[in-house]
Amino acid sequence: MTRLELRVDVDAPAERTWAALTDWARQGEWMLLTRVRVTSGDGASAGSELSAFTGLGPLGFTDTMRVTAWEPPLRCAVEHTGRLVRGTGEFRVVPRGAVSGFVWAEDVNPLLNLAFLPGVKLSLRRFAAYAREYPA
Description:
There is one protein chain. The protein is α+β, with helices and mostly antiparallel strands. The chain contains two helices and seven strands; from the N terminus they run βαββββββα. A hairpin with a 4-residue loop joins strand 5 (about 75-80) and strand 6 (about 85-95). The protein starts with a strand and ends with a helix. It comes from Saccharothrix longispora.
């Protein structure tokens, strides 16, 4: 596994960035070709479970995960529990007054990294625009 860590600046305060980031049902609006849903728990606490389908139509894969850390508005960590995606992932929000930073970190298989990286970079740019307009 290798650690992939990408960052983007968001023209929104940390609380809005966090709210946009953890609105699981709407993640597909910024995360490329992905739909996320809460499968267990409230989605806003450690122990909650999520399911993310990435693909087009019926072609794709499901990434299941368990929230292992919930520290609003700064950090959410998950343990990937699926067959294809394993390891840990983390979203971090870095407050900087009226703006914030968003860090996406994942432990990924080096072979998947090549396919994964362009989509994550595009998703981060989309997230910055999405969070800026997210209802306060």
